[in-house]
């Protein structure tokens, strides 16, 4: 069904590319099985189809508005939220002891992908709430957990991350919101936060803002930043319980409103169902906040939430690309137009768009970007899982080191190429794609934020080249090198994949050499060495994706052999369509062809970039403000 | 002023890159001078600033709507149209004998660029009307010209081009609208046209639709298509005059409504001020139409309008990119955020965004795309001019052959890279750029159509590789080769440009060899040889743009020498800011640096593409519909 994540694709990634089926072998998941995972995913897929997909367009047209007192969302948003919270989604990954289902991270992410394909903007609310739940589980005091985790896990309370301020944007170290300590151990916060998703609404009885602020007297810069929990509603009777019955009717509450005021909504290009706010803290005496984690460790704590959110952004980007790809594919199959150059007889019937090689090129690119992005994000989720639950300590450490290295790529690659995919979806539809009668223009608008939030592409380039590459003594890069080598070796063993193996190996070596050169250059002049960091991020991402596509191709070739089908469909492909297993063979040939496309058309683009990076090109670095005219 | 085309830039292109100042040496322009050109351009620049720029945003928010009887546009659209027609803009290029100002094409295009920077969507109305004027001037009968040219040139009548139908899209040969000959020599048209810009409005008293249709009994395919003039209002009294006084009040007219009915408006991603319609012809007995040009020559005639429109689309794309670039530049200069990696002391003041190398990279790319696109379109306009008014027959022929070759690039390159520029403008602004408080998101939406209309990117790839490259016996490509060689030779003479000259020469040779190989391959298997035509178009465009940037760099280096300023600003650049001519030196250094950036970062991307093209890569060609899953 268009607009929903293809289950065959998801199963391939979860159970063929990744070893999700082995997770029940770990103590934490011993009560589970693949059937349990699939049942959970199916449940959320049904919710995605029934409660999220139907209002994708309406959520764009009727964006949230503020009447001066309340923020109004379309009612479908409430139904979707309520259905999701009733399903237990927000606590599905939590311990059974916490009331959760103890499902693995990757199962949660797969479920999230279903929701994101159906209605990306609407997932901002649960997505942020999950992040706050995990942040509190990791760093909250026992009292904080006792008071807020339950309501958050049940969706009586929603969460936000309140980091950005109007005057600092990406430079978090410069935030100025201040926190004044109170005799009772709480704080009063004063300041303004901007671009806060889900900052005000009445989906839930309460909202918990996770706020970065500076305790009075704290040092300047990142070391002076602390993390605070700032609820929208404060307990009126001192026991902190949320009066659920009174949800949405503040006047009836026993709770009292905290000093967090909505300064206004931001009206965006896309993602309109997700309300984005400017919040004022402390205009009326100070917003009550509670320190989470140690003073001065706010950024370190928040990085947990940010790193999870970064995988989530990548996932949203991949999901948005997937939806556009499937829509464009359906359109291209049903729309007849023109003829190949060799068949210009005007009386011959027009052919389907997919009969044009250039349309197949655009669809292949979308497939490579969208499925590749999803593969990357689920791989990152598997690393996240391994870091926490792998039975061997060395494997846990390795997974964590690899995930740290890859996080900038997981955030950035699907955003950049997901945007390219959504752009191609419009192009496949042509003029029709430019109208709002089809969803592809909305998908492009919704997608556009992903290269910005949770760190812009430029920020992640600096993070990768300036920090992650050398982190853990370069261990992460070493692990990646080993992974690539293993895949190259496996591919070499398959005759049909040998040229792809050579391509990946050659380009990996280029990345490896370029990385070494750039690390050395950093010692000499850090600004010059980082000047082209965004290009480095792109090179790095292309190689990682080349590796993931070659891994998928290896599986495809083996499965095709199992099916007794050739890799290229042979001359009898038409006849083969009648055979049992034909659709399976088609699926794997599609994977193989997408891998061929990616390794042939996308990977070699790194060659000229690596030359510029290796030479330390300074054109942008030396450009001066005045010369722009 | 932000939102307006920089005059220094325009002067550089008109009078330094191109030899516009020499046009008064031609008989047609002997009454003119550069001062006259500049006065005309200034006039339209003032109209752009006063009547077009102010409602750019409003035209997006309050899009045209149809109440079942009339199409409503915001009143500012009417004021802009009236101001423009009163200025004589629509006839500025026409002969004095026709009542025009006999201004050169490039001056008209420069004026149009001002309007497009100010408000691209609003220029659809004059832009199409100009196309119809030129079409009638070239192919209309004397009676048609006598009746319609005057009202069109005065803007009492607007024009449209009505080609596309719901079932054929890009495949014009398959259109089905039929024309039945009448005893009086007129025709009755029956059919539906889609994506017709300006198809219905009341800006002008009348609208003239230029409609492609098939005369009953005509052969199938392109050879059976004829061109018809179909007015919205028919003369009631037989003399064909438009009752101007009654404009907008159809009931009061002596004219009668032709059988052209608005089936509906299309609601678009952007370009919303430009009304886009579906039109039904002949629902009530047949729309009266008049044959323009010979029967069966409709496509050939229409290609004149399409080719002009293609330069216009490129120009719109470049203008939209320019506006985004200047907006992002202003923002980056005023917005302070973060510090370079070498200056991390948290108490030091934040720096302007332009102090970050990655932001300069994004601005340089926008500069290269936007100014490069404008240079390309104005160069095409100069060729258009030369084809018509160059005193030497050989030069006229040469200009026409070169323009034919370059038209697919002029249409496509600014659209593709203008979109990339607008995307980068959003990225420079970050989260702010994603909100509708800044125009950059609208610019991206407005830009998106340019890769679709007047032929998609894929169509132009096929046109370039399958037709234009071999047209005129390959003469156009030969002329381009000579132009590139001349620029390479000039650049070699400047020490600072020698490496850039080598780069262009090397990459030209690659394009040249690849072109030869692909021409040869077409003889063997046309479908395979054209399968990667879009990639060929991109390669071709990158080389053409590399050449145009090297030409600009040659001028910059010479002017810097004239100014006694070094190419790199030296160490005393700060002191130099105080000197006379500093801003001129800055201007040329910016040109030089953009050329360096383009030749270093964009040109070498053709190397892997040429390898794939030369090898005749078949990944997309061999992909099968069924394999997409």
TrEMBL record, chains A, B:
Belongs to the acyl-CoA dehydrogenase family. Residues 296-462 form the Acyl-CoA dehydrogenase/oxidase C-terminal domain. The keyword Flavoprotein applies. Residues 44-156 form the Acyl-CoA dehydrogenase/oxidase N-terminal domain. Residues 161-236 form the Acyl-CoA oxidase/dehydrogenase middle domain. InterPro entries: Acyl-CoA_dh-like_C_dom, Acyl-CoA_Oxase/DH_mid-dom, Acyl-CoA_Oxase/DH_mid-dom_sf, AcylCo_DH-like_C, AcylCo_DH/oxidase_C, AcylCoA_DH/ox_N, AcylCoA_DH/ox_N_sf, AcylCoA_DH/oxidase_NM_dom_sf. Keywords: FAD, Flavoprotein, Oxidoreductase. GO terms for molecular function: flavin adenine dinucleotide binding; oxidoreductase activity, acting on the CH-CH group of donors. It comes from the Bacteria. It holds the Pfam family Acyl-CoA_dh_C. The keyword Oxidoreductase applies. Residues 482-623 form the Acetyl-CoA dehydrogenase-like C-terminal domain. This is Acyl-CoA dehydrogenase domain-containing protein.
């Amino acid at each position: 069904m268009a607009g929903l994540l293809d289950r065959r694709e998801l199963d391939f990634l979860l159970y063929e590319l990744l070893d999700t089926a082995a997770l029940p072998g770990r103590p934490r998941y011993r009560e589970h099985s693949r059937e349990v995972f699939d049942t959970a995913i199916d449940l959320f897929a049904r919710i995605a189809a029934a409660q999220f997909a139907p209002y994708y367009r309406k959520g764009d047209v009727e964006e949230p508005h503020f009447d001066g007192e309340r923020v109004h969302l379309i009612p479908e948003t409430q139904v979707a939220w309520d259905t999701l919270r009733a399903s237990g989604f927000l606590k599905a990954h939590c311990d059974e002891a916490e009331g959760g289902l103890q499902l693995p991270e990757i199962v949660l992410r797969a479920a999230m992908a279903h929701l994101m394909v159906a209605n990306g903007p609407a997932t901002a609310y649960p997505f942020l709430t999950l992040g706050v739940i995990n942040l509190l589980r990791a760093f909250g005091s026992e009292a904080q957990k006792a008071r807020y985790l339950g309501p958050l896990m049940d969706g009586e309370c929603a969460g936000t991350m309140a980091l950005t301020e109007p005057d600092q944007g990406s430079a978090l170290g410069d935030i100025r919101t201040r926190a004044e300590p109170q005799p009772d151990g709480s704080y009063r916060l004063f300041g303004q936060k901007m671009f806060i998703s889900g900052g005000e609404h009445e989906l839930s009885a309460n909202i918990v803002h996770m706020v970065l602020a500076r305790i009075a007297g704290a040092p300047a810069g990142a070391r002076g930043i602390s993390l605070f929990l700032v609820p929208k509603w404060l307990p009126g009777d001192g026991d902190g319980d949320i009066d659920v019955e009174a949800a949405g009717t503040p006047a009836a509450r026993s709770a009292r409103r905290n000093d967090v005021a909505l300064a206004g909504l931001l009206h965006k290009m896309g993602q309109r169902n997700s309300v984005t706010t400017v919040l004022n803290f402390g205009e009326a005496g100070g917003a009550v906040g509670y320190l989470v984690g140690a003073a001065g460790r706010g950024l370190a704590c928040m990085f947990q939430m940010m790193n999870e959110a970064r995988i989530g952004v990548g996932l949203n980007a991949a999901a948005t690309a997937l939806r556009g790809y499937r829509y464009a594919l359906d359109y291209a199959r049903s729309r007849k137009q023109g003829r190949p150059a060799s068949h210009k007889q005007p009386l011959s019937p027009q052919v389907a768009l997919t009969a044009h090689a250039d349309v197949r090129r655009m669809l292949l690119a979308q497939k490579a970007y969208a499925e590749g992005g999803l593969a990357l994000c689920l791989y990152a989720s598997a690393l996240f899982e391994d870091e926490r639950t792998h039975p061997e300590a060395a494997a846990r450490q390795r997974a964590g080191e690899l995930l740290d290295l890859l996080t900038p790529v997981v955030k950035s690659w699907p955003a950049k190429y997901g945007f390219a995919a959504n752009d191609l979806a419009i192009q496949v539809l042509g003029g029709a794609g430019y109208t709002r009668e089809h969803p592809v223009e909305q998908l492009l608008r919704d997608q556009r934020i992903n290269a910005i939030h949770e760190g812009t592409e430029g920020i992640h380039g600096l993070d990768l080249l300036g920090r992650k590459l050398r982190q853990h003594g370069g261990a992460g890069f070493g692990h990646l090198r080993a992974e690539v080598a293993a895949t190259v070796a496996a591919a070499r063993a398959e005759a049909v994949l040998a040229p792809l193996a050579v391509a990946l190996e050659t380009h990996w070596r280029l990345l490896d050499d370029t990385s070494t050169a750039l690390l050395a250059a950093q010692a000499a002049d850090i600004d010059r060495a980082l000047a082209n960091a965004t290009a480095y991020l792109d090179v790095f991402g292309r190689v990682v994706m080349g590796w993931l596509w070659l891994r998928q191709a290896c599986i495809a070739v083996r499965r095709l052999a199992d099916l007794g089908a050739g890799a290229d469909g042979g001359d009898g492909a038409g006849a083969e369509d009648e055979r049992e297993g034909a659709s399976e063979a088609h699926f794997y040939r599609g994977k193989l062809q997408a891998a061929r496309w990616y390794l042939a058309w996308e990977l070699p683009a790194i060659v000229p970039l690596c030359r510029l990076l290796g030479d330390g090109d300074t054109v942008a670095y030396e450009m001066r403000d005045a010369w722009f005219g």
